[in-house]
Amino acid sequence: MQGWEAVGVLVRHEYGSEGAAFVRSQLLMNQGYKRLGPLLAHHDIEQGRTWALVPAESSDAQRTSFDGSWSGFEFDWETEAAQWLAEAARAQTDGRGLLCFEHWAAEKEDPFLQTGEDVGDVFFCGNDVYEAAMQSAPVEAFGDLATEYLWYPTIGMITRLPNGTDQIPSGGEVTVAQLTAMAETAAVIIVSAWDAEGLVFWQPSA
């Protein structure tokens, strides 16, 4: 079933099997050179809900052309996405919710990470780099982070800190087991689309 509800100049478009297939393809593409895609791939993507914020005037064909672009449309995607992402992170229990993205290219020893300039709250799993916004962060931080990570091939999630962990300090480390637990409890999976102009969201069926 497909449909949408108005969100200002954007609408929330619910996908069918084509949305699930796209999310699955992005998780599998991540396999082999990064870590998060394979960890999230265990979710039953085909049985969940896949949706995106898209221009209200766009056609169904444009909405399902994930490799296309939104050229010619004007919309405030960041503001709309920030509000929803913040609410979804804050819905996680025990004050331990967070939004995080896996950096598609950076490695732990990269010089820009060592200087700390123009770098947000990052943590590492092995050599892989993740940037996060905890649920206590201001709404704008969620929009800034999501916009930064639009670039292909973005994989992100809204999840909870692993049990026994109250925080991950910026520059801190998580083990593979901890990252695996975070992937297993992910409430939202996020992938980029439309030539770095939007994100597609997946959630388990209610």
Task: Describe the protein in words.
The chain has 206 residues and is of the alpha+beta class. It has one domain. The protein contains seven helices and ten strands. Strands 1-2-3-10-9-7-4-6-5-8 form a ten-stranded mixed β-sheet, sandwiched between helices. Helix 4 crosses helix 6. The longest helix is centred in the N-terminal third of the chain and has 14 residues. The radius of gyration is 16 Å and the shape is globular. The N terminus is likely disordered.
Indicate the structural class.
alpha+beta
Total count of helical runs of at least 4 residues: 7
Could you tell me the number of beta strands?
Answer: 10
Strand order in the sheet with the most strands: 1-2-3-10-9-7-4-6-5-8
Sequence of secondary-structure elements = EEHHEHHEHEEHEEHEE
Low-confidence stretches: 1-8
C-alpha Rg (nearest Å)? 16 Å
Mean pLDDT: 87
Q: What is the domain total for the residues? A: 1
Q: Which percent band covers the strand fraction? A: 25-35%
CA distance, first residue to last residue: 15 Å
Instruction: Please state the overall shape, judged from the principal axes of the Cα atoms.
Output: globular
Helical residue percent band: 25-40%
Q: How many strands, which pairing sense, and closed or not: the largest β-sheet?
A: 10 strands, mixed
